[in-house]
Each structure stands twice: as structure tokens, then as C-alpha cells.
Amino acid sequence: MMINWKKAVGITAAAAMLIPMAACGGNDNNSNGGASSSAPAETQSVNLSVWSPQEDADWLKDMEAAFEKAHPEYKVTWKNSVVSEGDAAKTVQTDPSAAADVFMFANDQLGTLQEANAIAPVNDTVAAQVKEQNDQTIVDSVTGTDGKIYGVPYTGNTYFMFYNKSKFTEDDVKSLDTMLSKGKVSYQLQNSWYIPAFYLGAGMTMFGENGNDAKAGIKFENADAVSKYLVDLVANPNFTNDDGTAGLSNLTSGAVDAYFSGSWDAAKVKEGLGDNYGAAAMPTFKADGKDYQMKSLAGSKAVAFNPNAKSPEAASAFAAFLGSTEAQKKHWEMRQIIPTDKTLTDLEGMKEDPAVAAQQKTLAETSVVQPTIAAMNAWWTPAETFGKSLVSKETNADNYKEKTQAFIDSVEKDVAAQSAE
């Protein structure tokens, strides 16, 4: 993977450097995707295949037209296909060499994409763009175990809280226990992406400080206290477990007053709650007499290019273009996709949308970067199994310590197995 990229850069370094650097300032030409100040001596005909979600079809066409204008050195024939960010790695694995030249992906798939030789590290100039545009959490989300950056982020991928402002005040939503005393709260406790928020808040670590040390494993802290809290949470009449299908509708119908999800649900929540639409970062909870800050897993959605691309320099330039300041601005205007670019804080409607502030605070203060290494696969099944046992009350006040230890043992066993592969 890196060999192919280095060859491409060595051959076409000048072309590969023509990427959008809007976040770094500069003249008007650079602010719209790194356009050359003068027409190129030659025009290169290239074919670029691109994967994106169906919802991004119009935005993508607009960006392709803008890229052609900004990069007259390329005459591009486009081939667009529908593949969502969440399905990128799975689709790539069927045949990496036939995968799209440029694709959008959720960062938790980074390890899988690397193993499939389907994603290339960005060059130094694009890396500078990524670092200039984003907070460190987002940069870390697309950084591989080799320290190289893979992909250009364009939106965060994490969860926070939506709530009904007629039920809770801004002070109420700082504490989950306060909320449960005043209204009904929904949470996906059986979902292995959501349940770690409690254990991470109480000190659990996943694969070291940066989430990329497989040998460090997953280390639990205060696990018994957290499990006891969750047992009591399930027993609380003001708690509703969200099975992953009804949480949003329960919030908008008034069956519950708070619901944990991400920016992808913001427009529907706003439509359903109207003036009572509220959003906030993760709250605290009290377990065994101590206050802990819930911490969600956090990542990003990003654009990458395939090292198998026949025109890697053009693919690299377009991937960087789709993550540029101007492209993120257009993404917000067309679909309300919250940008990661730190300069885009004053776009029309952003300050008025509480989900924007909630996501930004979550990414900066109440989250942990989701590990992208293969060993993370050891977490998902044991965590889901344990969450389901809590919801069914198979894990209860009488046996939570034994069940928690069995959960920990299962995770450690799977981590060891993953690390040995």
C-alpha cells in the first residue's frame, strides 16, 4: 500500500500537491480547492470512480464540477456509485483492486481497509491540511498505527444527547441522575457502541493512550460500581432501553424525554420537537458515591483514495478536495452535515442548531477516540452480550459482580486471540 503511494508521489509530486488548502488561508484561487494560478501546459485525461452515500449524490456532482474548475490540469471522466460510509470496508474487501478510486468511509474501518490494501496514506501537504482544519481528536481518528494519516475528515462520528427542553433545563442535562428524577430517558444499553460510555467514564482504557496499542489491551476500572449502576438504571421506571429502532420516534412522540444518538438524527429531532428541540454533550452519572463523566466513542467520516487507482495523483487531489473547507461548507448548506473544519463556525444556521455545539463539545471534551486496530473487534460481541443481559435482568443486583467478571474475562480472551492473529 505505502509502496504504491510512494511511487505515485515520486512520479507525479507536483500534480499531487495540487490539493485544497483553504483552511490554511492564501489567495482566492487556493480557497476553492487549490486551483493553479495559470492554465497547465498539458491536460491529463483521467477516469475517477467515486463511492458516496445516496444522500450525497447532488453534493458530489457539485463538487466534481467545482474540482474540474479548480483543477484544469485534469479532464475527468467520472463514475459514481452508491456505497455508504459504513459499508465501504465491507464492499472493498470483495475486490480491493476493483474498488473505487475515491471513497467515503467511517474511520473505525481504517484497520480493515489497511489490511485489504485499499487505502493510501496522504502526502505531507494533505496531512498539513488535515492538521490545520481539525482538532486533535479528529486527526487521531484517521491516524494509523504507523503514525501516518489516512483520509481527509469532513464530519465527526459520535453520539451525544437530544432532549425535550420543556422537560429538562440546561442544568438538568448535565447529570443523568437528575434527568431520571424528572423525566424519561432512553439509551441503547444493549448496543456495544453505546454501553462503553459508562465504563470509559469510570476509567476504562482501550488499547493504550492513543487507542492503537494492541498489547495494552482493554483495561477496566471501577467496573463493579458501573455494572451496579446499570443494574439500577434498568430497574428505574424512568429508564427505557432503546432497541435501536424506536428511540427517535419515542422522543418525537413524547414517550421519552431524552434520546442518545448523533448528528444524523438532528434534522428529524428538530422537526419533531420544534421549539423544544435541545441537544447536549454526555452527562455525568454517580456510581458508588462518585461522579463520573460519560464518554462516548468518537471518530470521523473521511474521504480516502485507493492505492490501486490508475491515476493516484488525481485521486489524491480529489479526496483532499472533498474534505476541503469549501466542500465542507457546501455539505452543511445542502445536507446539514456538521463540518470538522475549525474555521466553519459561523455558517448560516449552525449557531442556532444545538446539535452542532453538542457534537463539538462531545468531540473535544466528553469522548474517547474509537480504536481502529483489528483487536477492537474483541470488544463488540462480549459487550453486546453483557448489555443484553443487563436489559433482560439476567445480570442483576444479586450476581452483577460475577457477571461483570465473566464479561471482563471474555473481553480479555478475545483481545488475546485478536492480538495473536
From TrEMBL:
Tell me which family the UniProt entry assigns to this protein: Belongs to the bacterial solute-binding protein 1 family.
Q: Which GO terms describe its molecular function?
A: maltose binding
Entry-linked SUPFAM superfamilies: Periplasmic binding protein-like II
Q: Which residues form the signal peptide?
A: 1-22
Q: Which GO terms describe its cellular component?
A: ATP-binding cassette (ABC) transporter complex, substrate-binding subunit-containing
A Gene Ontology biological process noted in the UniProt record is:
maltose transport
What is the top-level taxon of the source organism?
Answer: Bacteria
Give the matching InterPro entries: SBP
PANTHER family, alphabetized: MALTOSE-BINDING PERIPLASMIC PROTEIN, MALTOSE_MALTODEXTRIN-BINDING PERIPLASMIC PROTEIN
Stated name of the protein: ABC transporter substrate-binding protein
Organism ancestry:
Bacteria, Bacillati, Actinomycetota, Actinomycetes, Bifidobacteriales
Keywords attached to this entry: Signal, Transport
